[in-house]
Amino acid sequence: MTSIHTDVQIGICGSAGDGTIAVGDILKRAMARAGYRVIAFDEYPAEIRGFGKCVARTRITTEPVYSMKSETDILVSLNDAHAIPHVAEVRDFGAVVYDLAPISMVDEGWHISGHLNPGQLPYGLAMREMSEQATGSSRSRNMVALGFIAGLYQLPRPAFIDAIVAKFQTKAAAVTESNVAAFNAGYDNGAGTYRFDKVEVGPPARRTRLQDSTMMTGNAAVVRGCLDAGIETFFGYPITPATSIMERLSVEMPKHGARLLQTEDEISAISATIGAGFAGARAATATSGPGFALMSEMMGLGVMAEVPAVVFVSQRGGPSTGMPTKTEQSDLNIAVFGGHGDARRIVLAPTNVEGCWRCAGRAFEMAEAYQTPVVVLLDLYLSNRYETVAFPKKNPFLRDMCKKPARDKGDATYRRFELTVDGVSPRAIPGEAHGIHTATGLEHNEFGRPNDLSDMHFQMTEKRHEKLNAALKHPDITIYKRFGDSGEVEVGLLAWGSTFGEALEAMLLARDEGIRCAAMKVVMLSPLPVKPIKRFLKDCKEVIVPELNYEGQFANLVSGTLGRSVIRLNRVTGKPMAVAEILDAIRSAAGKRKLRKSVA
Amino acid sequence: MHRVIIGNGIAGSHAAAVLRERDPGSQITIISAGALLFYNRYELPDVFRGRCDWVDYLVYPPDYYQDNNIKLRRKSLVTEVNTGKRTLTLAHRELVSYDQLLVATGGSAYVPERLLDSIPLMHNFNNFRVAMTVRNALPDGGVVIMLGGDAMGLDLARTLIKTRHKVILIAGDRTFWPHGITLEDRPRYLRGLEKMHLQVIDEKQVDRIEQSNGKGPARRVVFSDGSDISGDVVMPFYGLTPSVDFMSHAGIDIERGILVDPQLQTTRNDIWAAGDVCQIWSPEHNAYRFYYGWKNVKMMGDVAARNMTGDDVSFTTTVDEALQIKADGTIYSPFWEHD
């Protein structure tokens, strides 16, 4: 028997309060539990309940994939008004599941069944009635719908029951029972429904290997990275989409003897983080664009006083309050350049969930090794995206990267900001014998004492910049990587952050079409790995830089640094970039070259 | 102008094509209770030849509907027609308005009242899903017990026999429906069926159908004299009942089917009917009568669409409706023909 390569994306769309995100969560956990690879991303409104649209999208595969798909295979509508605009996302011979018995009459054109394209297959289900029959209430119609698709595609029922039980374990037993009953009612109905669509879900592949994996969001991976790196203290102020980092840490840190404090604002959070770093603790904060803007002054202090600190910045639509629940990559400029003075810092931008863990852990090492604030730049799509990931059994993060002062020297000779070959000075922790020194925001001499002489300012500025170059060779972290065809290629994709997954998928599809192409992910945005990027650009006849901002902030960084023009692919829709859009750009770039060639 | 067609069979789909051709700017909506696009039901016996993908039965590809700006609403059951307000009520509680309406809902399988309790134990054959269900229920070389034996059933029987299944026909007064067979001719036609390798049981009345216990065929047909036979599948083929229930309060004349004049117009000037659902006034017979078969029904769709767009044409059949006996003694029905 030939095994089916499963690649199915399920979208569940409803209104806030319909339980859309909840069933999406159960779906992805159940499928991961069953041994499939899962990538999931939820769209939700800024309002708590009763207003906006929620969409829970889950991509279930047996082979490795790197992004969400542009097309949905199965769409479940829990609210037709919200789901109707998403019908167009469903591919031909895909399925649309909806409630065929709304509670009241709907106006002409407001039922989703009237909006299906001829190639899509309708599955009307009396969700409300089935929920009432199974549980005595219509509230569990989301579970009926989930059960229906699970039954329709013969997904493993026990994995779902386990996920439902886990989801409601903190609630009364009756809540779990009614949700299971509603799920089972839907499952039985789905299992008895004849399927006309062309959506195939085969058994999970390489089950044993995936059993060792876990499914988590980017923010959860950041938390795990922090804990594995031995975080000792965290200060934060809530802001979407970074809040869940603090929420999870508040639960986990006390178990490890570490401390967390919610401060009164972001300025306090970064100030306390730098203070803790000065005191020798592994310290971090997490925020989003508006919060990071408030932190910019203290980032300067961290750079000037050479204090280790880790700042997680999860980008969202901006500027100002912007679009708190929509994704964007428009804080690259503030992360790399934001602040006053020549304040170079390390900026890491992971491209997937596993990368969130690795960058979080390495960020603590780097902050300590190079004595400077390190920004880990995430975005909402990455922070909230679920992926199945497998972590190494051995914790790879080093606990102490501090360059210590020599013990045989006395107070008078200890130079906290000594001008060394690599720019990194021996660092004493307050209270350490023979380590008395001054840390200040003023320009200073090697002892830390205020000094604004021209030569001193130049030397110290140079020291603070040059010491970061060593980060480009920091061990066991991928700061850039090339994929695809080697050597000269027609089209190269240069991407960063969460958009790299879409870029990689588009590149692989383009190769399938016979276009020679490659993609490079750049994880370290500052200092920029100039040499490998330069080599890559030299290999590429055309270079596309896809990113979720209007200005082309990474394209500007690359063009400005390397003087090479690139094709900018910028989108600010609040959504991840579609693979199809990048693929079209690749085709177009490759096509233009062919046209030029034939004209010549 | 919003023209709504209820029914996605030959009559409705052909009418939509003609309407689009004659009035490119109008809004056309086909409302269908089924999940699929228009497909050729006459070819369904091919599932026993291994043609098991519904896409292979499509008359038009999905793009056809978008290219021709024909809106097809599937899984939408019309429960009521309000002719005063010119609205339809769909089962999912949505109102749809129309300016002109064509009813082309066809018919559903007729089952005698004495057998209604046995319906769950019988297999229909009127759409792709149930055709596949029969295929899956029938083992290689399995036995089909066919009740009644109307023209559609006999067409299926031809394929079943060619695909090495056994067909037992329980003949009765609906055998050969809709062909009218005289009592004198009946034995000759039944012999024709035997020549086609059907096993014919005549002059016995089915009392009930039971699920077999244990091994062997899944169904047992019990006759009123107490005797019984066993088969893997039991299929009723007693002809059709027009699907008109949803029109019962519409204020148009209905007998068994919707009564229409030769122009296929009902007693309302904004509603037409075509296909197996309508009884057409025949001046020749001085009565309302049904016309069956692909050619007739397609012609009705054509006539209705023309008259809805201002023409004045009458339906006349071109089909020779007589059941034929071929040179080899087997029978042939003109209703088996299709495009």
Uncertain spans of chain A, ≥5 residues at pLDDT below 50?
A: none
Sheet of most strands of chain A: 8 strands, mixed
Chain pair forming the biggest interface: A-B, 25 and 27 residues
Give the class of chain B from helix and strand content and strand pairing.
alpha/beta
Tell me the number of strands of chain A: 20
Spatially, the strands of the biggest sheet of chain A line up as 6-5-4-1-3-2-14-7
Biggest pleated sheet of chain B = 5 strands, parallel
Structural class of chain A, please?
alpha/beta
What is the string of SSEs of chain B from the N terminus onward?
Answer: EHEHEEEEEEHEHEHEEEEEEEEEEHEE
Q: How confident is the prediction overall: mean pLDDT of chain A?
A: 93
Nearest-angstrom radius of gyration of chain B? 21 Å
List descriptors.
heterodimer, A: 600 residues, alpha/beta, 8-stranded mixed sheet, 7-stranded mixed sheet, 19 helices, B: 339 residues, 5-stranded parallel sheet, 6 helices
Characterise the protein shown here.
The complex is a heterodimer of chains A (600) and B (339). Chain A has 19 helices and 20 strands. Chain A is α/β, with parallel strands linked by helices and 600 residues long. In chain A, the strands form three sheets. In chain A, strands 6-5-4-1-3-2-14-7 form an eight-stranded mixed beta sheet. A seven-stranded mixed beta sheet of chain A has the order 9-8-10-11-13-12-18, sandwiched between helices. Chain A starts with 6 loop residues before the first strand and ends with a helix. In chain A, 54% of the residues are buried. Chain B has 339 residues and is of the alpha/beta class. Chain B has helices at 10-22, 62-67, 128-137, 151-162, 186-195, 294-308, and strands at 2-6, 27-31, 70-73, 78-82, 87-90, 95-97, 100-103, 107-109, 143-148, 166-171, 199-201, 206-211, 219-223, 228-231, 233-237, 240-242, 258-260, 271-273, 278-282, 287-289, 324-325, 331-332. In chain B, the strands form seven sheets. Chain B has a five-stranded parallel beta sheet with strand order 3-2-1-7-18. A four-stranded parallel beta sheet of chain B has the order 11-10-9-15, with helices on one face. In chain B, α1 runs parallel beside α6 (294-308). Chain B is globular. Chain B starts with a strand and ends in a 7-residue tail after the last strand. The mean pLDDT of chain B is 94.
